[in-house]
Amino acid sequence: MVINTRYDVIIIGAGPAGMFAANELSGHGLKILVIDKGRDVEKRHCPMESVQHCMHCAPCNIMCGVGGAGTFSDGTLNLRPDIGGDLLEFTHDQEKAWELVDYVDNIFLQHGATEKVISPKGEDVEQLQRRAASVGAKFINIKQRHIGSDNAPAVIGKFKKKLDENGVDFLLNTDVKDLWIENNVCRGVFLNNGRTIEGSYTLLAPGRIGGKWVNEIVDKHSIDARYAGVDIGVRVEVPGIIMDPVTRINRDPKFHIQTRKYDDFVRTFCTNEHGFVVREEYEGFIATNGHSMHDTVSENTNFAFLVHIELTEPIENTIKYARSVAKLATTIGGGKPVLQRMGDLRRGRRSTEARLVRNPVVNTLKDVTPGDISMAMPHRIVMDIIEGLETLDRIIPGVACDSTLLYAPEVKFYSMKIQVDGNMQSNIRNLFAAGDGAGLSRDIVNASATGILAARGILEISAR
């Protein structure tokens, strides 16, 4: 395929936001180019599956490429407009926000997502909500569709094939160095290989891996944006039998807790029923995440347990703060995630290889360093994690027992939130934004929806 030097629309990022934007734009007679630093979906294979340790692939096959980081996550679609973002902020209409969620869901179904929907109702949900309320927590009931980390690549592959057939060009294994901006108008992009591609409209949708780059672009070109909060915590791993009574009700249960000591917000996120803990490679540090398959299971269930951090003056740069915590944890772990037993964290001692060998819960991620999370994370966050898990233990007995495994760091930080108008256009004319990398979403469904909104904004402006 020959890549042209000029397109009607250039999309930076082939994750959910970028792919759904391209899908919405196709069929309107526009020349569309999607650029991504990663590989095509069928070429994204992590060597850790066979060698059990990170090979430091550049770029990381888990984080980059067609389908984005969500391709190898749990593959759960949270079918609500207020989970993983807030679509009402962009639609200003609750009905339209729900319509967007249904629209995204239908596109996934068209490309092979499972038709099974987890929609908990009745007495089981009421009891779970009651148990949570009795300890001052909240259970968020969500309709979900679980694609699975093993099935998601096939779904994404079919979606990509459709875009290819519709004439969308993909330029992969390619870094965008900078935006071409003149007189407050975006005219295209500069690539790291020295090429320049002109575009009438450009959509910033690089995904979470592009957060640092987006922040640099924001500063360099005076793009209106503000710092958002960050989530810092651990990946928790327990025997699946502990979580089964809850995951049978809701596969990815969301519990919200307000800690007593610091009045901080702590939440569960990305539960992987009988899944696997994995590592993620970022520039300058590592982090953890979880995968859940349809056809391959472990004896354990894992979930993220995150403390929400907001900073005020004189330092508001939450991204820099989160990166510093993650870098310290990476240093303490010698370039690997730190693994600690809950009992050892409570008692203020590090976990050792010997203690882990005797531990009833066997870690699914092997490429780790036994250690002390309190050496890697601020005291307040550690106290929030301990208190929060002990509160959660009163809802789900066994979650905070001594043998529970904690991996650090688990960090969900986002780019500076780009300020956009009703068409998802920034203060730079013809520059639009969508998805996690632009700070406008925090999950697959919301990222996809913001990509659709940006595409519709482009179509509206181009028709004037």
UniProtKB/TrEMBL annotation:
Domain of life where this protein originates: Archaea
Coiled-coil regions listed in the entry: none
Molecular function via GO: oxidoreductase activity
Gene3D superfamilies listed in its UniProt record: FAD/NAD(P)-binding domain
Annotated InterPro entries: FAD-binding_protein, FAD-depend_C, FAD/NAD-bd_sf, FAD/NAD-binding_dom
Domain FAD/NAD(P)-binding: 7-50
Domain FAD-dependent protein C-terminal: 261-411
Ranges that cross the membrane: none
A UniProt-annotated Pfam family: Pyr_redox_2
Name of the protein described by the UniProt record: FAD-dependent pyridine nucleotide-disulfide oxidoreductase
Species of the source: Methanohalophilus mahii (strain ATCC 35705 / DSM 5219 / SLP)
